[in-house]
């Protein structure tokens, strides 16, 4: 009875915040409350007189408290719970197949609402792998602000990668403390390495400086697209590698055109990086792999393959980096002197905040991560263009008009701006809304007690931002499953202001690169690469997808990110 009553008692007289307890505690409280109600209704009179009197008073006060309407803050949303089990989380309760990723999370939203817990093996905390799913960006902002000096991120969940890198002696996985993983952890080593990596990469001005290189790499890459029309994903991996090489080295590798590329090692690196990223995603989400791998009970063949691929990536990447570093200053082109690695070498020598070996490993990680994740983002944009001919033609007209008006002979950084090509930008924004490459881009652990949706959570609680279902909510978006770029044009955005629908314009719904201190350091570069390659493809080719009328007709799955299984596309020259 005392337990039941305490569930109706606020923490202080003026509190409007509900404190949450574990599901088993809530169940016990609810059971006790039901027992009290039954006892009151049955008018229990047995037992010693003093206990009868105390019990009667307690029953009356509990019944009275239960009759008082609960006062919740305006942002309150009831927290619901997807069934969870030890170690495997909710893997036995709900469909977690990435081949139906969007549909799975839509079903969860429909059944459990806007705020709930789920067990995500490899990502959650406690024995149940608990994660709190947030769909309101304004509530997720609170979580970002409570990250503390050592913020968390999805990279910390790369258990197989971290385990092998630490065991193999890679410096990036060497933390300051026992049990920490350096760049993949949360200690001071992460902050030091992260600061060095993102310098000359994440800032808008720095990212804009790499656009001319990305445009040139895209111009060359699109000539090779028709040769890979039976498997455009392979071409996309090579194209993504080509574009990021202009950032990392200031070099044109041109391995995406089979008629011009000269170095097989470039394509082999891209292939290894692609296979590694796809396998790593599988390892991070498979409950059995996590249980066996983390415990050290058994090393599966997939786990062994992942380790082999990682070592291959570092061996090849080290050769690329060393070849650049061995060049004399006079041998470098002006383009190479604008690269990230050139500036990194200068900073490393002057500042000594990272060692030479740490710098080399950071360059390799950046180069490998840029391959498959970027190509997944681009793949969705290509599919939407191929299945919407009128929209594709409109983009083509907008791009060609912008080029003519600028007097340039092709794409420029200025043309790839929202002011010059607003409809093209609207298409890219709409592609992310209906088919995000990373639907769960933010995993955050709060560094202190926090209030979310009017309820208090303890330090260490894990939250994930699920934004897919909000921007597909029919109450907020007209025809939510249709690809309609016009909804992102300035007049449409202005019309939503001051209404509940304006939530879809929140920055958290804009890109698939997380937010906060652990936002992807290459996010702006990746978006520029996406713009450059898709724009150049549309300028060079009229792309069609025979047999497909909509993006919804295509299947998809988990590669480096969620990516469509592109059908055989047709490329007809524009001129």
Keywords for this structure?
globular; 575 residues; five-stranded mixed beta sheet; 19 helices; alpha/beta; disordered N terminus; 12 strands; three-stranded mixed beta sheet
Fold and architecture overview:
There is one protein chain. With 575 residues, the protein is α/β, with parallel strands linked by helices. Helices cover 48% and strands 7% of the residues. The chain is built from 19 helices and twelve strands. The strands form four sheets. Strands 2-3-4-8-5 form a five-stranded mixed sheet, with helices on one face. It has a three-stranded mixed sheet with strand order 1-7-6. Strands 9-12 form a two-stranded antiparallel ribbon. The N terminus is likely disordered.
């Amino acid at each position: 009875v005392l337990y039941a009553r305490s569930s109706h008692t606020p923490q202080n007289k003026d509190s409007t915040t509900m404190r949450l307890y574990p599901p088993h505690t809530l169940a016990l409280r609810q059971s006790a409350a039901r027992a009290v109600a039954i006892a009151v209704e049955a008018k229990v009179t047995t037992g010693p007189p003093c206990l009868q009197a105390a019990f009667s008073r307690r029953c009356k006060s509990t019944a009275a408290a239960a009759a008082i309407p609960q006062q919740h803050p305006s942002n309150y949303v009831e927290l619901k719970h997807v069934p969870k089990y030890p170690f495997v989380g909710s893997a036995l309760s709900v469909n977690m197949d990435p081949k139906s990723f969007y549909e799975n999370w839509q079903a969860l939203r429909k059944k459990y609402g806007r705020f709930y817990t789920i067990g995500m093996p490899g990502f959650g905390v406690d024995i149940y792998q608990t994660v709190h799913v947030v769909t309101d960006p304004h509530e997720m902002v609170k979580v970002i602000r409570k990250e503390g000096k050592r913020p968390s991120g999805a990279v910390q969940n790369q258990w197989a990668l971290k385990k092998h890198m630490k065991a193999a002696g890679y410096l990036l996985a060497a933390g300051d403390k026992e049990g920490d993983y350096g760049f993949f952890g949360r200690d001071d080593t992460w902050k030091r390495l992260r600061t060095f990596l993102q310098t000359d990469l994440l800032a808008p001005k720095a990212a804009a400086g790499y656009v001319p290189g990305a445009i040139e790499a895209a111009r060359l890459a699109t000539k090779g697209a028709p040769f890979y029309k039976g498997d455009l994903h392979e071409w996309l991996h090579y194209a993504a590698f080509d574009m990021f090489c202009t950032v990392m080295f200031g070099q044109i590798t041109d391995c995406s055109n089979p008629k011009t590329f000269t170095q097989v090692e470039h394509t082999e690196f891209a292939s290894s990086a692609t296979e590694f990223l796809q396998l790593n995603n599988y390892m991070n989400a498979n409950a059995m792999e996590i249980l066996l791998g983390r415990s050290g009970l058994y090393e599966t063949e997939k786990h062994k393959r992942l380790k082999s691929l990682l070592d291959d990536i570092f061996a090849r990447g080290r050769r690329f980096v060393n070849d650049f570093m061995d060049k004399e200053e006079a041998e470098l082109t002006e383009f190479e002197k604008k690269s990230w690695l050139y500036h990194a070498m200068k900073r490393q020598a002057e500042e000594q905040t990272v060692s030479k070996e740490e710098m080399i490993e950071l360059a390799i990680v950046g180069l490998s991560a840029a391959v498959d994740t970027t190509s997944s983002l681009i793949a969705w944009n290509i599919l939407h263009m191929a299945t919407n001919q009128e929209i594709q033609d409109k983009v083509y007209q907008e791009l060609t008009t912008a080029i003519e008006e600028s007097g340039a002979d092709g794409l420029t950084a200025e043309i790839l701006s929202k002011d010059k090509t607003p409809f093209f930008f609207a298409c890219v924004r709409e592609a992310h809304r209906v088919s995000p490459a990373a639907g769960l881009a933010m995993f955050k652990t709060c560094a202190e007690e926090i209030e979310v949706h009017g309820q208090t959570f303890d330090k260490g609680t894990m939250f994930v931002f699920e934004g897919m279902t909000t921007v597909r909510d029919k109450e907020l978006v007209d025809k939510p499953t249709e690809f309609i770029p016009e909804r992102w044009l300035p007049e449409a955005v202005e019309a939503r202001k001051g209404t509940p629908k304006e939530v879809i314009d929140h920055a958290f719904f804009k890109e698939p690169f997380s937010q906060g201190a652990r936002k992807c350091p290459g996010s702006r570069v990746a978006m520029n690469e996406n713009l450059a390659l898709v724009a150049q493809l549309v300028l060079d080719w009229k792309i069609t997808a025979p047999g497909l009328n909509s993006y919804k007709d295509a299947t998809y799955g988990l590669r480096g990110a969620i990516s469509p299984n592109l059908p055989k596309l047709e490329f007809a020259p524009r001129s």
